[in-house]
């Protein structure tokens, strides 16, 4: 059957890899955390002891009760099987410790829109601008402006966004007091769909968003430029030019079109990584997204919340790359041909 | 070595990068000579060695900070540790990556499938939460443990690059020739494949070094790293804690951030220079 349907075999292989990789990453992350010499209950008991200088019996019923609530009872293997079952069959990530007894999935859902909106929109803006500027830099590649643009992008692309963010906070936030530097909206406005609130949300997102846009823009400019420079050297473009097509037609119909495919794939993968990629930005701006949730969870060693964020991140990265791999043969005839042969 | 020399001769980005990096390494190396007499036998990381917030003087050329440590010593020691962590971790990650990438790329088959799957699983786990948790359970982590932990999370990237290169190279005619002529696997790897991989090894090393430093500084700057080692990231965190902005003490922030930007910039320029040397089409001054 697979001999006659190589495409089917390709799809099946990709889907199996998807499932196995998610399971494997889940397992590695689970054991990494459980093997660390601390857990939320012990950490909490210890801090209570220090705070009130009392001795708490580690084997007491109360401690046992909470260990059971957090799924920390039984052997490591039992804990693993139970957690695996709860996560993938019941979609239950367990109660959170930082906000007991709210389930982790509810906390994640409340934070997700903030992260998605801030990161998603910033990444998209950077991508569109990067594609356009990169194409222009490739077309005018002999001009000094393009050279300088490329050099500046090379330097910017490797500077981590949080360093840029610190600079923005320093100059635009504190010194010039142009933009707010903490949170996602002004507390004086009620949360909801009213103009004041929306305006305040946009206003607060300017600094964190520009930190992300500046660094990722540089990366997109560089990759688009090198893709298009390579395409511009091809013979069929010489032919197109000789045929008398205008530079605009050559750019849009030949060069940009060819560069669009790898760049769209890159965009999909970047979107997948956005859950975990910019956690530090959120922490720095105290933005109510997943990153800020993680920084709170980690301080009390909240397994469930940390695992929840990690699972969400693994899932989004893998799903993004699965979508890329499944659509590639549909839109790119070269890859379809390769699979068929 | 010959590869690096020819990069130096032909590429100006590479030259600028190397010069900046060499100056930084030199400053870090002679750092102890400068700050040891200033500290009067204290270690740079020890809080309360001197009075707090002393203005610059002959004894403390840059003054002291909010924990009573000499600022100049902080920066010199921090530059040293940050570079050390970056280089050790970069070297480790590259070594692990080469070993796995070589082995899987050359052998192929089941071993390849399993190791590649494991590398992919590692890669999708976000490193920050795990690193932060590790830093919390190991409060007295030293720079070597820290480098190892950082390397553990970046090796899959270099493994993947090397793997892709080897798979491509394996099919080249001169490798096929060597196989037909009866050379052993090891001989082929070291005489036919390895020399051609050298540029990619250097690029992988530069990439991992930057990656390790970015993670390390990220953790420290947000205040989640170990506080017993002075690094540039920790200095950024202190600058934040001491509200350097509102007090107008901009240098507290600008110096460590500036040093880091210089390090990242120099390594990126070196990397880009090597890339352009291997693939001349990327050059900014391409003529038609």
Quick structural overview:
The complex is a heterodimer of chains A (341) and B (288). Chain A has 341 residues and is mainly alpha-helical. Chain A has a domain at 113-289: MetI-like fold (Orthogonal Bundle), CATH 1.10.3720.10.
Give an overview of the whole structure.
- The complex is a heterodimer of chains A (341) and B (288).
- Chain A has helices spanning 6-34, 40-52, 61-69, 76-88, 104-139, 144-157, 161-175, 195-232, 235-242, 247-277, 279-285, 290-299, 303-331, 333-340.
- In chain A, 38% of the residues are buried.
- Chain A has a domain at 113-289: MetI-like fold (Orthogonal Bundle), CATH 1.10.3720.
- Chain A is built from 14 helices and no strands.
- Helices cover 76% and strands 0% of the residues of chain A.
- The longest helix of chain A has 38 residues, at 195-232.
- The model of chain A has no long low-confidence stretch (mean pLDDT 81).
- The model of chain B has no long low-confidence stretch (mean pLDDT 79).
- Chain B is 75% helix and 0% strand.
- Chain B has 288 residues and is mainly α.
- Chain B has a single domain, classed as MetI-like (MetI-like fold), CATH 1.10.3720.
Largest sheet of chain A, described in full? none
CATH names the topology of the domain at 113-289 in chain A as MetI-like fold
- Per CATH, the architecture of the domain at 113-289 in chain A is Orthogonal Bundle
Q: Which descriptor suits the 3D outline of chain B?
A: elongated
Task: Domain count of chain B, please report it.
Answer: 1
Head-to-tail CA distance between termini of chain B: 31 Å
- Radius of gyration of chain A from the CA trace? 25 Å
Q: How many runs of DSSP E, i.e. beta strands of chain B?
A: 0
> What would the principal axes of the Cα set say about the shape of chain A?
globular
Tally of individual helices of chain A: 14
The string of secondary-structure elements of chain B, in order, is: HHHHHHHHHHH
* Largest interface summary: A-B, 56 and 46 residues
CATH class of the domain at 113-289 in chain A: Mainly Alpha
Unreliable stretches covering 5 or more consecutive residues of chain B: none
By secondary-structure content and strand pairing, the structural class of chain B works out as mainly alpha
Structural class of chain A: mainly alpha
Q: What is the chain-wise order of helices and strands of chain A? A: HHHHHHHHHHHHHH
């Amino acid at each position: 059957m697979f001999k006659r349907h190589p495409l089917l075999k390709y799809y099946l292989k990709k889907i199996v890899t998807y499932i196995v990789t998610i399971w494997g990453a889940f397992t590695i992350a689970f054991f990494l955390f459980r093997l660390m010499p601390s857990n939320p209950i012990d950490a909490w008991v210890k801090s209570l002891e220090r705070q009130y200088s009392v001795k708490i019996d580690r084997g007491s019923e109360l401690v046992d009760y909470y260990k059971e609530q957090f799924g920390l009872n039984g052997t490591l293997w039992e804990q693993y099987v139970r957690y695996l079952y709860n996560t993938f069959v019941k979609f239950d990530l367990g109660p959170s410790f930082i906000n007991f007894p709210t389930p982790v999935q509810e906390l994640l859902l409340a934070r997700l829109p903030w992260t998605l909106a801030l990161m998603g929109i910033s990444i998209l803006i950077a991508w569109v601008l990067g594609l356009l500027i990169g194409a222009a830099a490739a077309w005018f590649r002999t001009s000094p402006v393009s050279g300088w643009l490329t050099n500046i992008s090379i330097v910017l692309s490797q500077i981590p966004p949080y360093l840029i963010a610190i600079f923005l906070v320093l100059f635009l936030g504190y010194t010039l007091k142009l933009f707010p530097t903490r949170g996602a909206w002004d507390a004086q406005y009620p949360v909801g769909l009213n103009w004041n609130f929306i305006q305040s949300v946009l206003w607060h997102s300017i600094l964190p968003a520009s930190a992300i846009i500046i660094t990722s823009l540089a990366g997109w400019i560089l990759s688009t430029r090198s893709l298009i420079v390579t395409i511009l050297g091809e013979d069929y473009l010489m032919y197109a030019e000789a045929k008398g097509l205008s530079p605009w037609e050559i750019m849009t119909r030949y060069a940009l079109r060819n560069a669009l495919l790898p760049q769209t794939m890159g965009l999909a993968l970047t979107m997948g990584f956005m859950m975990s990629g910019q956690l530090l930005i959120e922490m720095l701006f105290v933005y109510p997204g997943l990153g800020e949730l993680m920084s709170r969870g980690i301080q009390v060693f909240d397994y469930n919340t940390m695992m929840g964020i990690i699972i969400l991140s693994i899932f989004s990265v893998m799903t993004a790359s699965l979508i890329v791999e499944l659509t590639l043969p549909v839109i790119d005839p070269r890859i379809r041909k390769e699979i068929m042969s | 070595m010959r590869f690096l020399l020819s990069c130096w001769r032909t590429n100006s980005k590479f030259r600028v990068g190397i010069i900046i990096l060499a100056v930084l390494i030199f400053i870090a190396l002679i750092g102890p000579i400068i700050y040891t007499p200033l500290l009067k036998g204290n270690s740079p990381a020890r809080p309360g060695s001197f009075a707090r917030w002393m203005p610059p003087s002959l004894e403390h050329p840059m003054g002291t900070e909010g924990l009573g440590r000499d600022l100049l010593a902080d920066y010199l020691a921090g530059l040293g540790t940050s570079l050390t962590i970056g280089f050790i971790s970069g070297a480790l990650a590259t070594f692990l990556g080469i070993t796995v990438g070589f082995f899987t790329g050359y052998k192929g088959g089941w071993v390849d499938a399993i190791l590649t799957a494991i590398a992919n699983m590692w890669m999708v786990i976000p490193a920050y939460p795990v690193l932060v948790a590790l830093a919390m359970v190991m409060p007295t982590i030293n720079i070597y443990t820290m480098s190892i932990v950082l390397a553990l999370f970046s090796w899959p990237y270099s493994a993947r690059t090397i793997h892709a290169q080897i798979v491509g190279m394996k099919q080249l005619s001169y490798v096929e020739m060597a196989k037909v002529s009866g050379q052993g696997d090891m001989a082929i790897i070291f005489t036919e494949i390895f020399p051609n991989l050298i540029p990619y090894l250097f690029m992988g090393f530069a990439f991992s070094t930057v990656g390790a430093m970015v993670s390390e500084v990220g953790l420290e700057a947000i205040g989640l790293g170990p506080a017993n080692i002075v690094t540039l990231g920790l200095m950024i965190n202190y600058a934040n804690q001491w509200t350097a902005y509102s007090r107008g003490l901009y240098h507290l922030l600008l110096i460590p951030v500036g040093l880091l930007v210089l390090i990242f910039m120099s390594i990126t320029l070196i990397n880009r220079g090597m890339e352009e040397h291997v693939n001349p089409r990327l050059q900014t001054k391409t003529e038609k």
